[in-house]
Amino acid sequence: MATQPMKQIIYLLFLLSLTSHTALAANRQTGIKGNGEKDSSVILIPFDYKQSALYHTYTFDVIDSVVNVLKRDDSITLTIRGYAHIDEGNDTILKYLSLDRALFVKKYILGRGIKEDRIILVEGKGAAKSKNSNVNKDGHALNCRAELQLNFPAPPPVVVVADKDGDGVPDDADACIDEFGYKENKGCPDKDAVMILFQFQDIKLQSTTYNTLDSVINVLKQNPAYHLIIQGNAHSSEGIKSVCDKLAQDRADIVKNYLLSRYVGSNRIAAVENYGSSRPVNLGRTPTEVALDTRVQLLFQK
Hints:
It is built from six helices and eight strands; from the N terminus they run αβαβαβββαβαβαβ. The protein has helices spanning about 5-25, 55-70, 90-110, 210-220, 240-260, 285-290, and strands at about 40-45, 75-85, 120-125, 145-150, 195, 225-230, 270-275, 295-300.
């Protein structure tokens, strides 16, 4: 029968094994960490002193949790290493005892439906010390053991896409490599756009913008074939999506209403579009850049 401390150790290992897969899937680590710390992908299976077979249900529960991890992800493989305590026999006995422990675990795992090619290494380490060793008062509980190491595939290499202007359009597809632009424009900004700027989180026309709007009106009067597209925009820092959408729409509407009040026919306004915060003109890294995004953009259409 297992002693109460042994049962507690095995139960703690069981809990570790149940939680390890989630953490490991995020970290994608294998083997011993380079800084010498224990690797949480290694699960310790204690054996009774001088025994190479397992008898306790708690221990089988731990191994079953490892089996479940292997069944959920075919890319994970397993390494099994057996260890022995130095006073369990001479060097030859320790070598065979440690190997028998590893082979016992392997046989059990194969019997649970795991294919043999998923177990890439089985070895007996004798009384060799592992970086995962813990030494308690009697020295046996964690030295008479097998170690199950889950081996995760290396993460795919990080693909670095060159994007000099940071607009999300790769340089090899960007026709304006030094200007922040849009995918639909092949990485170029909107050409000949007239900017009507607004204060942060505000929808009122500024006194400085009336001259700009009046100039737009004069262009429309002088060019009867021209129509106008009004595009409302906001910066993402002005609020959540719904707030930005409303700001952009209100800005577009107030510009439209001003034009109508100045006798621009509604038929001259081709569209009123709301882009919310989805169409910035820069990366928004400074207050000045942010101020250029709190805007309405006017485009002439022939």
